[in-house]
Amino acid sequence: MATLRLGDIAPDFEAQTTQGTLNFHEWLGNSWGVLFSHPADFTPVCTTELGTVANYFPEFQKRNTKVIALSVDGLDSHHEWIKDINETQNTTVNFPIIADESKEIALLYDMMHPNASEKSTVRSVFVIGPDKKIKLTLTYPASTGRNFDELLRVIDSLQLTANYSVATPANWKDGENVVITPAVKDEDIAAKFPKGYERVKQYLRMTPQPNK
């Protein structure tokens, strides 16, 4: 099993989901995508996670980002569990959940870590760009729920840096100053960044976020 790395094409697949059968690449279309796995249905941390994603759904939509979950449980289990998620998390699950009982997709994306669990997926996250390439991977243990505020922050950074010659510094949040990449020559800064910039060091040049 080869490990999926940043810049790799996200493997395509066909899957049964709570919103019908879909082809992954076709479903993504020209959107960004988040594919994330959870260890099992009817488990406490997973219930809070999927409820959080449902509540954050408008934030993902604003970022032209589709979300899709996966576990190795079946469709009937997923549909029953959704009732619990909606009730306990005061939400409506409005994104597809993949039924991967064969573990085919989980293995394709290296979501099964035998030394952690031989039966369940770990909490994997893949952010995929419109070019179908993997832009971010994260892996959490079953005992730790994910921080979806951080995931939105990363998507903001990925989308910004995909369109401008900038990088985002530590703890950056949307609207804050960004770093001009080293590839931009000093003489080109004025044209590229009309808001101005601050030279902290020769290699560290800060500028206001260009798309604000």
Task: Characterize this entry briefly.
The chain is an alpha+beta fold. It has 7 helices and 11 strands.
Report on the structure:
The chain is α+β, with helices and mostly antiparallel strands and 212 residues long. It is 31% helix and 24% strand. The strands form 2 sheets. A 7-stranded mixed beta sheet has the order 2-1-5-4-3-6-7. Strands 8-9-11-10 form a 4-stranded antiparallel beta sheet, with helices on one face. α2 packs across α4. The longest helix has 16 residues. It is elongated and about 60 Å long. It starts with 13 loop residues before the first strand and ends in a 5-residue tail after the last strand. The mean pLDDT is 93.
List SSEs in N-to-C order. EEHEHHEHEHEEHEEHEE
The total strand number stands at 11
Strand content: 15-25%
Report helical residue fraction. Answer: 25-40%
For the terminal residues, how far apart are their CA atoms? 43 Å
Q: Give the helix/strand class.
A: alpha+beta
Radius of gyration: 19 Å
What summary fits the major beta sheet?
Answer: 7 strands, mixed
Strand order of the largest sheet: 2-1-5-4-3-6-7
Average of per-residue pLDDT values: 93
Q: Poorly predicted ranges (pLDDT <50, ≥5 residues)?
A: none
Rough outline:
elongated
Number of helices: 7
